[in-house]
Amino acid sequence: MTLRIARDVLLLVAKRPSRLVKWRLQTNLFRGRAPMSDRIESHLKEDRRFPPSSEFSAHARIRSHAEYTSRHAASLEDPATFWREETQDLVFREPWKTFSEWELPHAKFFVGAKLNVSESCLDRHLATSARNRAAIVFEGEPGDTRTLTYFELHREVVRFSAALLDLGVLPGDRVAIYMGMIPEAAIAMLACARIGATHSVVFGGFSADALRDRINDLGATVLVTQDGAWRRGNVVPLKQMADKALLETPTIRHVVVYERIGTKLAPFSLKEGRDHQWDMLLARTPSAESLAKAKGPEAFDSEHPLFVLYTSGSTGKPKGVLHTSAGYLVSAHVTSKYVFDLKDSDLYWCTADVGWVTGHSYIVYGPLSNGASCLMYEGAPNFPDAGRFWNIIEKHGVTILYTAPTAIRAFIRWGDEWPEKHDLSSLRLLGSVGEPINPEAWTWYHRVVGKGKCPIVDTWWQTETGSIMLTTLPGACFSKPGSTGLPMFGVDIEVVKDRGEACAPNEGGKLVIKRPWPSMARTLYGDDARFKESYWSQMPGVYFTGDGARRDEDGYFWVTGRIDDVLNVAGHRIGTAEIESALVSHPSVAEAAAVGRPDDLKGQALVVFVTLKTGQPADKAMKAKLAEHIDREIGKFARPDEVRFADALPKTRSGKIMRRLLKEIASGSLETKGDTSTLEDLSVLAKLRANDDEA
To answer: What is the rounded distance in angstroms from the CA atom of residue 259 to the CA atom of residue 272?
Structure first.
């Protein structure tokens, strides 16, 4: 048996890894369970390390593991000195007096500093060689392209800043941004930062109801949107969806609409006195006062709110994660510089949407503060065919690709022939983000996309952390497929047991952060009590990430996924309660429960169990109606992969749905594990398993 396992592990490096190999690696390495045997563990340790090439290390910012270790130790032992050195190339109008102040669970960083975040991203480059360097290289889904240099991007941000000021936007006002992946989304974000307004980007895949709820929670006074966005050759009518939301958003005073598609394909209406077309608004001559403020922007306190970004929670209400100016900017800047080893010659492509934190930190604020050239693509990875990403890399000469394991698994399914049709030789570094990457996908990414020469930086972090917390610096540290690596500078992170004591090597536990870090969320907007309860109540004095993990004998972290009831479907965190609330709002539904099951492509697939009201048909038509209802209430990205009808759901005697048991059923398990003594009716489980779901 041992020889057979060893043989299967070796097959992982073959072109078509076996399903058995994948299962063994996931269950033993990725999920953090005990090693198969000393012999196999030794074999994996020897053969599953991927060091950077000597050529890459020779030109990297951090060139050895010893240098990384020394810098990381310094960042913890003398953080004030470390961060003072690392902030030399950012623009502070007034220097900080105190590195940090900490009173659980609230922190302040770079206390006393004054800055304008947009100056570090734009103005500081205008007197350097970056002035005429591409800041954003845009490719639209139809194939149209345009490039904005740092000079041009600065000019557009100043113009839009002046326009917002003329609309009466003041520092501290909230601006909602509901757009696709176009440069104007970044322009709007940077303009808000420039005038001190707090922006909140709402993912363009969200429904009108989801947009409405976020606007109202935020109390936004301005909405910036567009007529429509391209997606797989179709038009997503964003302005029409926004109009539905605006029927119930009393705080909105102005709406700015960028015309991306054109009225023939994306017709929209303008409400007089409220709605403004982007181009016409910017064509007006701004007031002298507004123009002066836009050109010479005000400096704000280090803790001035920069943005609020909503993320799903384990209750029905999304959480508005608040990030402030200096700490967030510094961490996004430093992690971008070192993790991606940015060079002036790079064309860096992060494939995330600006509606998620990855787009904030690693398309806008981090790369632009480093003077990087960033590619922005509007559309889907498989339109017009499965070779679109590889075509873009070849066409533009992309050097760094930062994408999600979900996308990588899709690429694998579509076939090696697509990347092999294109010249990917410009690539020098690959990255992974959004969820843990399984070893099979890592190996394919390295072999087929990177041609065996590109280091891979797998990264772990969260909306709440603001910046990358775990990774392997590409010129300094070897990588392990499936492991997210080592702590980033300033990050004191550990795997602990329930009572807080450290776990032994390779022992699974809870992933916690032991001290504050600059880019940490300051609170949840309007709900400080929930902030304390969500992140700081599990263990005294530490931040609980909500993830499980283990740390191996080399100090490498292996993140195993969420412990709570938030699902990670294709890189999107979706709260089960939000999905259940949407389902129950359908007139045919009595009860609903949402769970995840393992999925090769998405990481987790969404399965919903639904109990219908008496007289409602449990058929395929009803499944379609419920899926469409989720589309409307939340967004198409939250559409269930499977809808299963149930006469009753497994509950405790107190009425709590036992989702653990539903997860087992959704995953195809034929036996019930763990304690079922609190289950009210055991026959419910038997009925659910007997149901072949052919209705």
So the answer is: 17
